[in-house]
Design goal:
Helix content is 41%, strand content 19%. It has 12 helices and 15 strands. Strands 8-7-6-5-4-3-10-9 form an 8-stranded parallel beta sheet. A 5-stranded mixed beta sheet has the order 11-12-13-14-15. A two-stranded antiparallel sheet has the order 1-2. The longest helix has 18 residues. The chain is elongated and about 75 Å long. The chain starts with 9 loop residues before the first strand and ends with a helix.
Length: 351
């Protein structure tokens, strides 16, 4: 893995982003922000899943006013997502929001942006410049250059507005629904600015396709040392975005939250219902917040050795299975008792 890109460190609430801080995982509520209780319930669900920052859509004055009550009770730092109306940004800052997501060039007259930046600087509120490929400025859309270059040009234009106002609490994202466009845009901007980068493939899709696109896009960039915070965008319950985000980071050894599950792909030697068993193992231990690896293997002969890197595991036999630890078999158990015995052994190991 390449050395992590060095970037300016900022803070959203108490979460550090950039510099030597670990890559953080974000999500966005899909509730109506005006519904304080529903929004807080979803924020709490996200926090339980491990989410570190939550973003809220602020479409109008009522939503901006609801921020005040939500911030008081939220277990997570919050980002207000705002388009066009500078007054909403000001209202959110005054109501205690931890960060803003907006594009300075879309706010309108310079004096409006000056008002937002002056207050953000006073309150030390970071601003994420969020460039989306599908909503670029008209003059950039008409340019005969690659889409990724248009995105970078847009981001640099917005950044300059903030820098000209002596503001540098900046985070930047350049998202496209096309994976390679996203990768190209981030690679380019990473060499041009010192600010932390928020990674994401926008409109990635439903669970299966969205995770694949995000894993390729975000994984490629993270493996190159690019990226300081991520959101996996899915047409799904937002807590699934958090789980997917941590899974991507775990696969790159960037974070170690929760269990790392491994299992063999099955073959003709498998004499146990491995597919069902592997799913049951994941379900049983999905909320175990221990940085361990649990393996589910189909072959009693080769399984423990092939998964000797795992902290704990199951290797299947005919109507039975073996529990192993660090490659060594420690128990032989009937198939219908495997999960119960594995749980007992893992719990005892951490008492």
């Amino acid at each position: 893995m390449m050395k992590r890109r060095n970037s300016k460190q900022i803070k959203i609430g108490d979460v550090k982003i950039g510099g030597d801080a670990p890559v953080s995982v974000q999500s966005m509520c899909n509730t109506d922000t005006r519904d304080v209780n529903a929004t807080l319930n979803q924020i709490r669900e996200l926090a339980d899943a491990g989410c570190e920052i939550a973003r809220l859509a602020v479409l109008n004055k009522d939503a901006a006013d609801a921020i005040k009550e939500i911030v008081k009770k939220s277990p997570l730092p919050l980002v207000a997502d705002i388009h066009f109306d500078y007054r909403l940004a000001i209202r959110c800052i005054n109501n205690g929001i931890d960060a803003l997501r907006l594009n300075p060039g879309n706010i309108g007259r310079r004096e409006n942006m000056e008002k937002v930046v002056s207050l953000a600087k006073q309150q030390q509120i970071p601003i994420r410049i969020g460039v989306n490929a599908g909503s670029l400025e008209k003059e950039l859309q008409e340019k005969d250059i690659p889409l990724s270059e248009k995105m970078v040009e847009s981001a640099l234009k917005h950044i300059k507005i903030l820098e000209d106002l002596d503001f540098d609490l900046i985070k930047v994202s350049l998202k496209s629904s096309d994976v390679m466009t996203t990768i190209d845009a981030y690679r380019s901007i990473a060499e041009k600015i010192p600010y932390p980068l928020h990674l994401g493939v926008t409109e990635a899709g439903t669970m299966r396709g969205g995770i694949i696109k995000s894993a390729i896009g975000l994984g490629t960039l993270l493996a190159e040392g690019i990226g300081d915070t991520i959101r996996v965008s899915l047409t799904e319950n937002p807590k699934e975005e958090v789980t997917a985000g941590f899974d991507i980071l775990k696969s790159l050894n960037l974070r170690a939250r929760g269990v790392n599950f491994v299992s063999c792909p099955t073959c003709g030697r498998t004499q146990i219902d491995l597919i069902s068993l592997a799913k049951k193992v994941e379900e049983k231990f999905k909320n175990l917040d221990k940085p361990i690896t649990i393996a589910t293997m189909g072959c009693a002969v080769n399984g423990p050795g092939e998964a000797r890197h795992a902290d704990f595991g199951i290797a299947g036999g005919i109507n039975e299975g073996y529990i192993f630890k660090k490659g060594e078999i420690i128990a032989k158990v009937p198939e219908n008792q495997l999960l119960e015995k594995l749980e007992e052994i893992i719990i005892k190991s951490y008492e």
